[in-house]
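Q: Hand in one record:
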Amino acid sequence: MEGTGEITVHLATDNGLLAILVPHGLMHRTGDYLWWTREEELLDEANAGHVVPIETGESGGFAVRVTFDPLGERERRVAAQSAVFYLRVGDDEEVSVVSGEELAFPDTPGTATFWTSPGEYRVTVTRLRWTEEADDEAPDVLPDYVVRLCPLRPGEEPPTLEHLPYLST
């Protein structure tokens, strides 16, 4: 997924949190199984570029599409809200998509993993209101969230969060 391509992941969460993370960046959290439940620590890791927390506001199953491409026409039509984050991908090029509960174990086997070029990315998470489409039973049903990675341009400052955005469904 080096600037092109995408991955769609179906996740379930009991605590209303999904995440895109750089496992290597969170290795210092090994052994602290509750760090991700403390908002200030989760915000610190987000601003360090180690995790993109997606606060869903409820438990349940969610589909997340991660891409380097802009939103498609259908997605733009039903986009509800967006938030911009920062992600710093290390030399191992590994990025994972997980439910919040899996943040207790940053290198969990079985998480959806993709690889991309090392570097800094602006990450835009957009919640979709796909149920507002005429037929949400269609085989090409839209995901709940689209996560777009865009490499930071030279000299561009990474986005900084003052609070965790709430992207409820």
